[in-house]
Amino acid sequence: MKFDTPAAKNPIDRLKVVGKATDRIDGPLKTTGLAPYAYERHDKVRNPAYGYVLGSAIAKGKIAAIDLAAAKAMPGVLAIVTADTAGKLEKGQFNTAKLLGGPDIEHYHQAVAVIVAETFEQARAAASLITVNYARATGNFDLAALKDTAVKPVADGPGGKPDTAVGDFEKGFAAAPVKLDALYTTPDQAHAMMEPHATTALWEGDKLTLYTANQMIAWSKGDVAKTLGIAPENVRLDSPYIGGGFGGKLFVRADAILAALGAKASGRPVKLALTRPFMFNNTTHRPATIQRIRIGATKDGKITAIGHEGWSGDLPGGGPETAVNQTRLLYAGADRMTKTRLAVLDLPEGNAMRAPGEAPGLMALEIAMDEMAEKLGIDPIKFRAINDTQVDPEKPERKFSQRQLVKCLELGAEKFGWDKRKGPGSVREGRWLIGMGVGAGIRNNLLMKSGARVRLNQAGIVTVETDMTDIGTGTYTILAQTAAEMMGIPIDKVVVTLGDSDLPASAGSGGQWGANNSTSGVYAACMKLRETVAQRLGFNTTEVDFADGKVHSGNRSIALGEAARTGEIVAEDTIEYGDLDKKYQQSTFAGHFVEVAVDAATGETRIRRMLAVCAAGRILNPKAARSQVIGAMTMGVGAAMIEELAVDKRFGFFVNHDLAGYEVPVHADIPHQEVIFLEEEDPISSPMKAKGVGELGLCGVGAAVANAIYNATGIRVRDYPITLDKYLDRLPPVA
Amino acid sequence: MKAFSYERARTPAAAAAAAERTPGAKFIAGGTNLLDLMKLQIETPQHLIDVNGLGIDKIEPTPEGGLRIGALVRNTDLAADMRIRRDYGLLSRALLAGASGQLRNKATTAGNLLQRTRCPYFYDTNQACNKRKPGSGCAAIGGFSRSLGVIGVSDACIATQPSDMAVAMRALDATVETVRPDGTARAIPIADFHRLPGATPHIETALGKGELITAVTLPKPVGGTHVYHKVRDRASYAFALVSVGVIVQKDGSGRVAVGGIAPKPWRVEASEADLPRGAKAVAAGLLAGAKPTHDNQFKLTLVERTLGAVLAEARG
């Protein structure tokens, strides 16, 4: 199905199932431990051996010699694979560094060997007996020191062009009566999802099956084939349940390739999970940024010039963090400029993490807006409203398909009690300094083609099949809701099968595009199924209603399953998109509100209240959507206050590489969170009239926290995370 | 984890004798620290002596009017004991500020005292660490040292002792009771129990080879107001940046012990005479001779400010 004109009224609009708060259909499987995750595929693989990965002890250089003799002699060891013995390996399309290093080492904890043994403990013990002599080379590890060596990235990445300019920014900024010119930094961050990267690999002749944890099945099937140099048709990925990804599992990682190599070498199925201390340097992370923001405005608060420059680093051949991109869209202003610069760093590979670009970009931009509002003496919400735009400021002929940012902010202000906010450092409750902050959020709606197959059997059960993934987001449920709505059946008559690369290729899970695109794919397949059903039942297809488990036309009503009396009906289709995303800017918006308390003596900051008001198209499952948003808000608190991969600039690695050192919020850090979804349908987006919320919930939260800390203390911190050591000496004296 | 042999000891003295006799032996009780370190191959014992069945898990009054806490009393039970809560509130609060409920259910009194540093370089076997591999150097010096020690440290090691409980024990003047491999017992004042690193940071306590902690005794209650404030980056389940425990008497005298800043729970009795003069004066004495790094210099300010807040709280 080609979607190239705005959606008209369609069966989804009935909203009998879609749009209703719905429990996860996979919930009972998860709470009872029956959902099979990649490392636990006892249902598919018998008697697996265990793989353990040895990582490089240096960040850059060469392996001069590697001695496996002692490890090989250990009890239970079945095979050891290194770059010397793995055969020729290509690099995947989506990988920057090789997944098996040697002799060249590109980053710390790059895999240099996989040890396969009868038990996990045997494999781990053997790994410690491998002696590797490294020839260490000098590397580049300090982004701040290398900032001036950063260059314009050659290729247009997923974020579009590295640079944009409209009007004359320098002139406009110079002429502005009120100006802000400030530098902000965000640190490297880890996805830190609960389930580590894990794969169970099984060879049957030339055919490889990987039971793995992966967000993007079709991409990754291709990259497994490319890396191993085998035909794609000989590769199958199965990833029905995933314990979190946040972008860390968008790509094939070392677990998959090394499990495959280990299984080949040992002649046994191999299960392999990356251990937690290994994940921070072996896999990808969100790159640190340095950002310069300049805003010029008239005295009455109209932005006349806005410029945002962002610097980040990555391994040779890698890409930038596109932290400036939202600034192209979020506020009006005649003279505009954005620039993205990329330095070469020899730290582990930087890549996408939840809301790549916007998450760190808004952490900076939305502090800048707060600072500017204060300079102007205008309420920060009013300042944002003054500079709202209903068109793409760089291409005014492109309207936003929907843009309710101002309503998000104004409704949020009303619900949150924003009118009680006082000036910086002026509200105190005993030892606590109290402050409120706001941040605007924007995250784009990305359109990706997405396929699905639906089957109807005689019992009236509809089975949805697609390689779409559920990374904890609730995909199973919204796909079931979609099929139920389309076919006029209750949700318990729908079975959803996901994550198998033998199924039709979907959009996959990433960039908050999963929900809208994958449900649209199911919509397309169901439209075909409806036609076939109607034909089988002898109805005129244009005047058929699917409701209450029956097919109605005129005064005839027939049970849906009757259509499959002579055999299962199968329909398959793919949603594909025209140029509506070129004609219109499609984005989602949020207003984030935070209240903090800062201990005036110790500087400890505690979040007291949080509210997000989101406008994100039709909300398919308000319950799951709320879960997505509160999870993202929690991640935003982590980003604002604690999360930082600490770089050892001498040896080139992330030092705090476990969950004791890389702290994420715990329950005690997170107070009551409220989420409001504005009524919105976006017919320009898709037949579902939906967009996504999974990343929007994170966009703007960090700055709202930062602005609340400023409001509480009167101290502005522009370097994340905002830990107490950055402002302790500026707090009031202890009585 | 390397393969290891295992035995259950029958008596404390037998456990100590076995530990002295068997090469590469370690005691195991709650295992909340040792097992993690074994999985990471930071600790690689060849033999484990399980002391859980020794029955030294009671809290009993002493003739002197104090309490004798068996080495195996779990942190949860100790924190919840009515006598501890009434007379040694500092200890109960310090315990509850540490770890998580699940860990406290397993972790023992002796094990808590013996827990090892959380220095990130100690935890990475690719990095030089004089504690983990004597003579290999210290990668933390000149590295990421935000969480590390500011006082009592040496050129060989800047790690901290991470226990909350030990801070309270230090303020309460606890005594560590042990049994040695020859069956004799001795008592070690808590002040002498943890050693400063000097040139030998791998030697962390005064315990001799095979020596087993059997109990920790608390002297007669000293009264006063007890406050323990642990400052950390998140609200729970994190090690202290700085923790301050105080016992303040009505006459303004008192005791101060500090965690998160040194290789042992840090207390300078002489500085306590300055309590009537306020936190700044006490902190100056406590922190005299501090050698912070660029990353952890803030701890000096933080100790002073937290102490100020804690004293204000204690004095109501």
Automatic annotation (TrEMBL), chain A:
- Can you provide one Gene Ontology molecular function annotated for this UniProt record? carboxylate reductase activity
UniProt-listed InterPro entries: Ald_Oxase/Xan_DH_a/b (IPR000674), Ald_Oxase/Xan_DH_a/b_sf (IPR036856), Ald_Oxase/xanthine_DH-like (IPR016208), AldOxase/xan_DH_MoCoBD1 (IPR008274), AldOxase/xan_DH_MoCoBD2 (IPR046867), AldOxase/xan_DH_Mopterin-bd_sf (IPR037165), PaoC-like (IPR049648)
Keyword field: Oxidoreductase
Chain segments annotated as transmembrane: none
Q: Which EC numbers characterise this protein's activity in its record?
A: 1.2.99.6
A Pfam match is MoCoBD_2
Q: Coiled coil where? A: none
Q: Which domain of life is it from?
A: Bacteria
Question: Aldehyde oxidase/xanthine dehydrogenase a/b hammerhead domain: from which residue to which, for each copy?
Answer: 32-138
Q: What is this protein called?
A: Aldehyde oxidoreductase molybdenum-binding subunit PaoC
Q: Which organism is it from?
A: Sphingomonas immobilis
From TrEMBL, chain B:
Q: Which residues form a coiled coil?
A: none
Annotated keywords = FAD, Flavoprotein
Q: Does the keyword Cell wall biogenesis/degradation apply?
A: no
Residue stretches making up the FAD-binding PCMH-type domain? 1-223
Q: PROSITE patterns per the record? A: FAD_PCMH
Q: Which Gene3D superfamilies match?
A: 3.30.465.10, CO dehydrogenase flavoprotein, C-terminal domain, Uridine Diphospho-n-acetylenolpyruvylglucosamine Reductase, domain 2
InterPro entries the record matches: CO_DH_flav_C (IPR005107), CO_DH_flav_C_dom_sf (IPR036683), Diverse_Substr_Oxidored (IPR051312), FAD-bd_PCMH (IPR016166), FAD-bd_PCMH-like_sf (IPR036318), FAD-bd_PCMH_sub1 (IPR016167), FAD-bd_PCMH_sub2 (IPR016169), Mopterin_DH_FAD-bd (IPR002346)
The superkingdom listed in its UniProt entry is: Bacteria
- Stored Pfam families: FAD_binding_5 (PF00941)
**Could you tell me what this protein is called?**
Xanthine dehydrogenase family protein subunit M
